[in-house]
Write a structure and sequence with these properties.
mainly alpha; 7 helices; single chain; globular
């Protein structure tokens, strides 16, 4: 993977992010979570279990589930990462932690169907533009290039 993050960083950042409506989160925090999701070898199942140990509200669980599921929809998410994410999402959707009637306002029409699935009246909205530059092949290649360049500068062992 491209980046290494300290253990439990994802769950700590996720806990912090879900405290506010998703369309009002700090850009830097959203980008850091997206980078860790897409490019780090973080064990999502463990991180979600740590997140759930803090006994978040069902609204916070919905925001976390929505965000993780939304990040799986970007082309830079590998098949393996998506599989890991789906397992983590299943932990969030267990009946004992997810109350499906906690937020939905009757009669409110949502254009963000994923947010609706998570019973949220909010989504990332235009905040998604903050993470778009980081999900391209160009970004990944530019991050790998310095690593490859450094390896090429070292002499071959004799």
């Amino acid at each position: 993977m491209l980046f290494e993050f300290p253990p439990q960083r994802f769950s700590v950042d996720l806990r912090r992010l879900v405290q506010r409506p998703l369309n009002d989160v700090e850009d830097e925090l959203l980008v850091r979570i997206a980078l860790e999701f897409w490019y780090a070898s973080t064990d999502l199942e463990t991180e979600i279990r740590l997140f759930l140990e803090t006994q978040p509200s069902s609204e916070h669980i919905s925001r976390a589930g929505y965000l993780i599921q939304r990040l799986t929809r970007f082309s830079c998410a590998t098949n393996e990462r998506v599989s890991d994410a789906l397992l983590a999402i299943s932990l969030l959707k267990k009946p004992e932690v997810f109350d499906s009637v906690h937020l939905r306002e009757p009669g409110k029409v949502r254009k963000d169907y994923l947010a609706s699935e998570w019973c949220l009246n909010e989504g990332l909205g235009l905040k998604v533009q903050k993470i778009l530059p980081f999900q391209t092949r160009h970004y990944e290649a530019t991050q790998r290039a310095p690593m490859i360049g450094n390896a090429m500068d070292e002499p071959f062992p004799r």
